[in-house]
Amino acid sequence: MDLIYDLLREAIAPTTAAFALAAIGLNFHFGLTGLLNMGQAGFMLLGMYGYAIVVREGGPIWLGILAAIAAAAVFGLLLGWPTLKLRGDYLAIVTIAAAEMIRYLGRSQNLNALTGASTGIRGSDFKGSFEMLSPFPDEQVTIWVWTFHGTRSTSWWLLLVGWALVALFLLMFWRLSKSPWGRVLKGIREDEDAVRSLGKNVYSYKMQALVIGGVIGAIAGIVWALGASVQPDSMGRPTTFWIWTLLLLGGAATVFGPVLGSILFWCSLVLVKGLASLLIPESVLSTQELEPFSLMLVGIALMCLVIFRPQGVLGDKKELAFND
Amino acid sequence: MTETWRAYGDDILTWRGSLTKRIDRRAIMRALIVFAVAALAVTLVSSVGTSAFAETSDTATIAASSSTVHADVETTDAEITVDESSGPGTNRVAQNVFNGLVFGLLLALASVGLSLIYGTTGLSNFAHGEQVSLGAMLAYFFATQQPVSIPLTPWEFVIGWPLWLASIAAIIVAGGTGWLQDRFLWSKLRKRNVKIVQQMIVSIGLSLAMLNLLQWWIGPDRVRVSIAIEERHQFGPIQLGSTTAMSIGISIAVLLGVGYFLLRTRLGRATRAVSDNPSLASASGIKVDGIIRLVWVMATSLAALGGILMAFYDSGTKFDVGARLLLLMFAAVTLGGLGQPFGALVGSLVIGVVVETSTLWLGPDLKYATALGILIIVLLVRPQGILGRAERVG
Amino acid sequence: MTDDMFADVKHEPGASKPDPIVVADKVHRHFGGLTAVDVEHFEVQRGAITALIGPNGAGKSTFFNLLTGFDKPQTGDWLFNGHSLKGVSPAKVARAGKVRTFQLTKALSRMTVLENMRLGASDQKGENFFYAFAKPLWADREEEITARAHVLLKRFKLYEKKDDYAGSLSGGQRKLLEMARALMSEPEMVMLDEPMAGVNPALTESLLDHIVELKQEGVTVLFVEHDMHMVRRISDWVVVMAEGKIIAEGPPSTVMQNEQVQAAYLGSHHDEDLSELPSADELHEEASE
Known about the structure:
- The structure holds 3 protein chains of 3 kinds.
- By secondary structure, chain A is an all-alpha fold.
- Chain A has a domain at about 15-235.
- Chain A has 14 helices and 2 strands; from the N terminus they run αααααααββααααααα.
- The mean pLDDT of chain A is about 90.
- Chain B has one domain (about 95-380): ABC transporter involved in vitamin B12 uptake, BtuC (Orthogonal Bundle).
- In chain B, strands 1-2 form a two-stranded antiparallel ribbon. Chain B has a two-stranded antiparallel ribbon with strand order 3-4.
- The longest helix of chain B has 30 residues, at about 90-120.
- The two termini of chain B are about 25 Å apart.
- Chain C has a 6-stranded mixed sheet with strand order 6-7-8-3-9-10, sandwiched between helices. A 4-stranded antiparallel sheet of chain C has the order 2-1-4-5, with helices on one face.
- Chain C is α/β, with parallel strands linked by helices.
- The two termini of chain C are about 40 Å apart.
- In chain C, α4 packs parallel to α7 (about 170-185).
- Chain C has 12 helices and 10 strands.
- Chains A and B meet through α4, α5, α6, α12 and α14 of A and α3, α4, α8, α13 and α15 of B.
């Protein structure tokens, strides 16, 4: 019973929403445009730094969000500028390197006063003003089967905001992917030169996609940080890889793929851990071994997905997520 | 095939001759602007940081890691660097440059393989870092006097082989994983005509799986392959430990061996032919699949050797050592020119020196960041790398 | 009718035409030590079908890439409708009214045939990020271009396939789609890179008819081709390239009699440019078509 409750809780948790958001951003990159952004966690980290630092220093919420968006947009422009003219895997290497650089800078002792170095920024330093806005009572609230705190950290309030943002950006993705703008991006995904020969400025479109997806990643970072704290090491490469896994799991280029992927991904992690601790004796697989064990399965799942079902759960079999 | 090699040589000469012409002026402008913006940002941010640094430095030691369900597996400890610069009569700059060259040599062992794989198959193998860790972990597994076990089995046992035997066994097993990978994974994907991008994501999945397998198997803590404390000797301005000297010797010998193989043996020339143009090589009777299998075994064995020597050099190792090195390897390979094994060697040495000397100005926690900065700047100015040839368009 | 335009044109390389739409001067492109294109002077007559032929490795495709902005020469200048296109990006070349197709077809596989066609249209407000949010701003234009796409698809006998993914089309159908897509922007000039390569004989006929139809509508056509029969059937003027240079020009009936041309074709087997061999990927693509 506990396991089922854990699953239900995980399915709607704010972190699930945050990862769904980050995956929507990646869907603009990879699903629509075919860009290999391997640094989505870097965009998220920039977003949470931008928000948390501004708010900690007494800035209003809107300014914090603006700072997050601006940081991600500038980051995207700087990364895209030199690399979007090169072959696709250069972008992959540069984005992964740049994201790691952000993390190294963030956890550097030199920036301790600003970023809190490897400790990060404590939640209590920046969550207050957001939690003040909560319409929910300041206590545990149970709605149907779920019990969350009303306002603090992983709360009903954050949950509401997180999923509302997911809905908003899903709507945006749907509208844009069905527009002539989205059509150009899909064309670029299929064949850049063909789109160039039809008179479209491929570079500019790739840049737009990179920046928009990155900004959505930054907003995902804010949601994530409001549920936990700002932790540079939680936004390392594995985080990016998880986002990729869940996007491919749900189905790249589909509207609901990122959301379904995020829910499936986090629920199956909980399920694997739950089942493993139930079924495998402690002497064979101890509690601290559960985490790497289940994450190893994530890696294997990513490989199998790409090899056997690249279109994901929601993808059309005919419209494979990769070239045929 | 010697012509091909000569062609590489010619290319370097012409590149030197017309350096200014070949490097696009706009590319330099782009690089300078990006560099200036980055430098400005870092300076601004760190000036804010250092001004308040003294007051807050105490709190930094308090590890208030509020871990969540999604907390990262990558651990947060600061790099343990051997402080070799403290001896009397040691010149810090010379010592750092020297350390950089050593680190570069060890890095080269790993990145040459990465470059060979890229050259022959086009794959940017993200799991190559884990191959490095695997070598180090296997050596630990065979050599340690601590009880070890195999995942999902309840038995604990001590193998405790001597270091040389453990290292050789580790390299053989690691090479075996290369063979298995190509036999049962990569060759199948190539046969199914799976696109390179897709293969790259498969390698990411593999890296994630291997990283966590290693953590599960050996544990999250730092381990020591050898418990011996190395003797230090003073040579002019630098200090050199005996184990390090041996590591240098081994890596130079192995790299020379790889060079000899590529330049002077039939198989090696065939390898370079496959690198150059797989369809042409295949048309001229070279068994491309066999060559690629060989490259995988070589690359994984070299990576394992690199991991083992790196474990001696750092006097300790960890399940994620390769994951941290992966980007440095990519930096080295890109710097030298994607798919150019000799470029990877040069690139590794440059990256090694940059990483080690950067600690003269910046904190040690920023030394990897410096290398990544170099990588990005190189991509801006000369995306084909130092030794790479400009790509033909259309 | 068209024979008249070429009545006074000399049968020599770089001959000047009465009403040129493209004029190129001293275009030189080399890769390392290898000269790919070295064209002294070149003109294309407006409203005519001009064929560009030559043995393998003659530099035709490279010249094509240069003229359309996909590659940049070391020296040279070329005009389209009197405006210099030197250093102009491929997208701007296309917007100026000169649209090209590719030797290896670039159908956008995971988009439907109709979406492929719509992408070809120009002046679409909805391609701007901010306009894209508000459908009313671009719905009208979308209807117009869809109507035009339907007309073109019917003409190219692809109408029944309009909702299929382009990836499901046969090699010949992809060629047709690419040509139709190029026409969506109502270009003044189309440049076809080996339009007949890999197309089965039944489709070849209709492809040729389509090219002739284009001329009747006043579109200028420049195409690269290997097959002399095709060239003879539809072209008004033939330009022969070998080793990067234009070695002869003339009407299709006489140009092949030129000694230099014959020598170039016969000698071509000795010095095929290996770098023009398709890569492994391209070979696979061709095989799967």
